[in-house]
Each structure stands twice: as structure tokens, then as C-alpha cells.
Amino acid sequence: MAAYLIYRAHVHDADAYRAYMERTPAALAAFGGRFLARGGQTVTLEGRPETARVIIVEFPDLAAAEAFYASDAYREAIPFRRDCADVQMVVVDGVTP
């Protein structure tokens, strides 16, 4: 069953954050991840206005998402965002048929 990584980032330094953005697509793809949304316009329909950069990635399953996060390739990318963005990442299972 597919799993979805929901990533929210408050970016403080867009120029520095680009180095992180350049490193993540290959790391995601290595575990079957594909972007469904990547920092596009958001519209808040209810609740507090969303101010974070929102990214949604589909993985084949929860194990693949966790393997991506634990991978050397992704671990090497993390320091490039550490000082320029505050991040929250959540992975959720998709709907079962």
C-alpha cells in the first residue's frame, strides 16, 4: 500500500535551502519516491493560514519511506537544511482498497 510523506518547512534562507533541494530528488527516487506536490501555492480552507512550504511525496509503502529517511544519501542532505529551515516530516499509510 502506498505511503505519503508530508513535509512542512519554514525556510529562513532560500539561497542556502537550494543546496538541500538539489540533493533530495535522487535520494527519494532511489526508494521509489515521487513528488506529488513540491512547494506550490497553498490555500488554507479552514484553520490557521498555512505558512510553510508543503511537499507531498508518494512512496510504494511505509517501509520505503522509512528506508529513504534512514539512507546515507538523505542523511548527507540534512545538514544543508539544518540551519536554514525548520522542518516537520510525517509519513502516513494510504487508503487500503
Care to describe what's here?
This protein is α+β, with helices and mostly antiparallel strands and 97 residues long. It has one domain (3-93): 2-Layer Sandwich (Alpha-Beta Plaits), CATH 3.30.70. 36% of the residues lie in helices and 31% in strands. A four-stranded antiparallel β-sheet has the order 2-3-1-4. The longest helix has 16 residues, at 14-29. The radius of gyration is 14 Å and the shape is flat. The model has no long low-confidence stretch (mean pLDDT 95).
Short description:
By secondary structure, the chain is of the alpha+beta class.
* Biggest sheet details: 4 strands, antiparallel
Low-pLDDT runs of 5+ residues are: none
CATH third-tier fold name: Alpha-Beta Plaits
Structural class: alpha+beta
- How many DSSP H or I helices? 4
- Rg over alpha carbons: 14 Å
Known CATH architecture: 2-Layer Sandwich
Annotation, overall tally of beta strands:
4
Could you spell the SSE succession in H and E letters?
EHEEHHHE
Mean pLDDT: 95
Number of domains: 1
CATH class: Alpha Beta
SSE blueprint:
Elements: E1 3-11, H1 14-29, E2 34-38, E3 53-59, H2 62-70, H3 72-77, H4 79-82, E4 85-93
Antiparallel strand pairs: 1-3, 1-4, 2-3
Descriptive keywords:
97 residues; alpha+beta; Alpha-Beta Plaits; 4 strands; flat
